[in-house]
Amino acid sequence: MASTDIGTGLLRGLTAAGVLLSAVVHLQLYTEGFKDIATIGPLFMLNAIAGLLIGTALLIWPHWLTSFVAAGFGAATLAAFYISVTVGLFGLNETASGTPQVLAEVAEWVALVFGAALLATQIRPALAKRR
User: Fold this and answer.
1) Could you give the CA distance from residue 78 to residue 60 in angstroms, rounded to a whole number?
2) Would you state the pLDDT for residue 15?
3) Full-prediction pTM beyond 0.85?
């Protein structure tokens, strides 16, 4: 196995881990009471389902599209979290200091950063072929 294959596999695994961990944290928070919060509850369940699907897709379909979606998932989830912490989102003012919040935030940064790095490794060869 070439070192680029190992590096790409590592990036894919880290990206999937970030997405899946974020999904699990959102599912846990949903079951622990967020399900009772209008709008936010269904969005947490949607986030959990989407994260599980995206994380699984990353592991079984080595395509640039899954990397792009994973990085977008991380970015969108982080944006929603930061909006909720700073000004509130759909009536919820989240705290940034709880264990699930910190765990999800780190997981989403992992999904964003490693997803973007994985995407870069996948599109670079395609761009080089066009030249």
Assistant:
1) 25
2) 97
3) yes
